[in-house]
Amino acid sequence: MLRISQLNLPPGHSMEELTDKICKFLRVRRTDLLDYEIQKKSIDARKKPHIFFSYTVDVKVKDERQVLQKTRGKAKKVSRLPYQAPTPGAVPLMRRPIIVGSGPAGLFCGYLLAKSGYSPIILERGNPVEERLADVEEFWRSGHLNLSSNVQFGEGGAGAFSDGKLNTLVKDAKGRNHFVLQTFVEHGAPADILYEQKPHIGTDILMNVVKNMRQSIQNMGGEFRFHSQMTDIRLENIAQIDDGNKGNVRKISGVVLDGGEEIAANVCVLALGHSARDTFQMLCARQIPMETKSFAVGVRIEHPQSMITQSQYGKTIYSGLPAASYKLTAKLKNGRGAYTFCMCPGGYVVNASSENKRLAVNGMSYHKRDGINANSAVIVTVTPEDYKGTGPLSGMEFQRMLEERAYTVGQGKVPIQCFKDFRENQPTKELGGVTPQIKGDFTPANVRSIFPKELGDSLEEGILLMEHKIHGFARADAVLSGVESRTSSPVRILRSADFESTVSGIYPCGEGAGYAGGITSAAMDGIKTAEAIIRKYSQKLNIT
Ligand code: FAD
């Protein structure tokens, strides 16, 4: 297999043209090119108005040695190793492993454990995706919030109603990232996510992928229990001798569900997501080691997608180019950083609340990304110094305080404000040329009043600085909505290098435990957690 890169072709080109380009590059006839697979496709818009797709491709040719000579170092020999799960350990596992949460972390942990013969039980407080979709749409239509089935909770987790961006900054030599994307493709995602530089699925396709993964896990011996919220855990003290010293350590012996049922467990993966506040409270009360952590808060900002597309691709209109995206950062005078986050080209702002009388927003899109607006979070980092509270849950209480203010300011609806009025700290009375694209009821208000003064000032300064990168970003009629508070987990549930808490058998995992940010990294953390369980325990036993 040979790898070649920087094959540039204009938007709208055909696959025929790509094949021709490969043959020309390798200086071989069509019949000498046996096969090829695209590894990466990115957009090169540095020399506008000339825009190209740039390809990296792995090729199989009849005579590799001759091609290597002819291309003089431009083609490189590569070998691709598929992802491999570890070899099972020796400790007998007496009970089926429990996974709490069916977001990307829980789903992929469950997938690998089921594939490796460990028959996991996946507990999910919310509904299966099909029913969940109806609950969420009802909430957006009527404002009636289902506390266990909403944008944050239910099968598929927080990622189910999302833009479905699948890129991650997590580097991984073991092939876990490719394994995640490949598994998505095997369960209904388009194959281009395997090579697009910025792969994305969209809410509509993601729902189906999640449902198909559930069926695979069930077929491999896993079990899903919906409407099953873990409300407590059972712990036991066990005597342990360490370096000759006697002592007690705690271990998990079971989980309690909201109906009162108890399930005995030796292994419990906490893949809770960042919004399981009641569960964080319970774990904190049970003294599961955890700490508060920094996260970021801010607003969603909407602009016309055509403005963003023009700024990124130039004035020439090309067919075959996706809706343009952006990623911006700004260094503020007070030392804080402002940045855009979870940008949704052609997307919608969504009411993403999960608690009564508290309101949070986020962004989503459909696979086509063909909505008229682009939206993104603009956020600034907040640290324990901002929370002015103590204890592991102080960041969570700060999130709650902002969400209560957002609910009050919008009188239960998503509060929106033009950037001009945000700067003047006054409620918006009239909108300009940007028509909000929001799932859920919304109302003009003073979004700035949600924030402590320093954060409001920081957001204003950040947006003004971003105008230097995208003309129109700080336009007077850009629509801001709030509050963007669920950017990452406000807590970290501590774990060792073996992925286990000091409370034996508890495996904190994914975004809620503070080890991931985004769909793919949460899925990869789910895989790593499953690997840790496989490495420790043998699966060949009579599991009950
Ligand atoms: P989650 O996905 O939050 O899953 C946790 C699950 O645990 C939930 O299903 C919950 O119901 C369940 N649960 C919680 N407590 C309990 C309990 N006590 N008992 C039983 N079940 C419980 N990321 C991206 O990479 N790209 C995007 O485009 C993107 N867009 C987003 C858009 C929106 C609207 C939102 C809300 C998030 C978006 N994200 C996106 C973030 C992404 O969804 C998360 O990073 C990811 O879902 C985290 O995965 P997780 O499995 O760790 O947690």
From TrEMBL:
Upper taxonomic lineage: Bacteria, Bacillati, Bacillota, Clostridia, Lachnospirales
Residues covered by the FAD-dependent protein C-terminal domain: 294-487
Pfam families (UniProt xref): FAD-depend_C, NAD_binding_8
Name assigned to this protein: FAD-dependent protein C-terminal domain-containing protein
